[in-house]
Design goal:
single chain; mainly alpha; two-stranded antiparallel sheet; 79% helix; 2% strand
Length: 243
């Protein structure tokens, strides 16, 4: 779990550095920077979706796959998220901490940063390598990226970004601890990781939309969407065995 611990520490250090800038930035400038962040996050999310959804043929033509799976994942995942009220519960947790530590705006930074840092293939692959072989190189690279991102986010969204280190520690730590069984699972379903990443980066894209246009989408309620590709692949395997 060395890489995961380094990753969590990098988020805290980057967030602390961002808080130094946060105090000296006037509100109008924070708003402008937040919009710029929204554009960057939107592009990162879009790039992630395209990279995992489209493949290039030898003649240079593009073919897409997973469109229906993406739609199914978002619809079913959002339905589960709404029924479980994940967004409300995460915000309530953020507000509780906000009141305890008297940190205004903790909830928004905590929820958005947690999703940004936890989705994507680097989190899964890096944690798997860390747990199976002790190779933390992927997570070290992710740590640098997350530290920079935490600095930028904390400069506009405040101390809540630092709280995202906790979900990262739990999420990636769990993958590292159960790496041997999870690695075998992903080996059995080679298409699963790109599918999960495709859905995950779609959620990141939604965060970018919220940064630009205000909190229109309850992004935390989309989190169950990431697990729908797993269920679909398992159902297809069961269907194949049944035949």
């Amino acid at each position: 779990m060395t890489g995961t611990i380094v990753n969590a520490v990098s988020i805290i250090l980057g967030g602390l550095a961002g808080l130094l800038f946060h105090k000296g930035i006037r509100e109008s400038l924070k708003e402008a920077v937040l919009k710029a962040e929204g554009i960057a996050v939107l592009i990162i999310g879009l790039n992630g979706v395209i990279a995992n959804m489209f493949t290039a043929a030898e003649d240079g033509s593009l073919s897409d796959s997973g469109g229906m799976l993406l739609l199914l994942s978002l619809v079913l995942g959002t339905l589960c998220g709404e029924l479980l009220r994940i967004d409300d519960r995460m915000n309530a947790l953020g507000v509780l901490v906000e009141h305890r530590v008297k940190a205004e705006g903790f909830a928004g930074g905590f929820v958005n940063a947690s999703i940004i840092f936890c989705v994507g293939s680097m989190a899964i692959i890096g944690a798997l390598n860390d747990g199976l072989t002790g190779d933390s190189s992927v997570l070290y690279v992710k740590s640098v990226l997350d530290g920079i991102t935490a600095l930028i986010l904390a400069s506009t969204m405040g101390v809540g970004v630092l709280g995202a280190a906790v979900p990262v520690l739990i999420y990636q730590g769990a993958i590292s601890l159960f790496a041997s069984s999870l690695s075998g699972f992903f080996d059995s379903f080679p298409e699963l990781l790109p599918q999960i990443s495709m859905v995950g980066y779609t959620i990141v894209l939604c965060i970018g939309i919220n940064f630009l246009f205000g909190p229109k989408i309850k992004t935390a309620n989309l989190i169950p969407s990431i697990f729908i590709p797993v269920l679909v692949n398992l159902l297809m395997m069961v269907k194949g065995l049944w035949r």
